[in-house]
TrEMBL record:
Name listed for the protein in its UniProt record: Dolichyl-diphosphooligosaccharide-protein glycosyltransferase subunit OST5
Family membership noted in the UniProt record: Belongs to the OST5 family.
Subcellular location: Membrane
Complex formation: Component of the oligosaccharyltransferase (OST) complex.
Organism this protein belongs to: Pseudovirgaria hyperparasitica
GO cellular component annotations of the record: oligosaccharyltransferase complex
Keyword RNA-binding: no
Keywords, alphabetical: Membrane, Transmembrane, Transmembrane helix
Domain of life assignment: Eukaryota
Pfam families (alphabetical): Ost5 (PF05251)
Amino acid sequence: MSSPLKQIWDAAAANPYQPAVGKDSQFTVGFALLLTGLILTGIFGLNRSMISIPLLGVPASLAFGFGAVYMICAVGVNV
C-alpha cells in the first residue's frame, strides 16, 4: 500500500527548490535594501506629515526588515 505522503515526497524530488534570490547575490540585495531604507528614513525624518507615513515610512521599515534578514543570511548567521 502506497502512502500519499510518499508520493508527494517522490514528486517533490523531481522539482528542487530554487530561491528567488540566490546565495551569491544575497549580500548585494541586502545592502541595497538597507541603503534604501536608510535614505527613505532620512527623507521621512525631514518631511514628517500624514501623507509621508504610507509613502516613506512603510517602505522604509519594509526595506530595513527584509534587508536585515538578507544581510544576516548573507554573512552566514543562522536565523
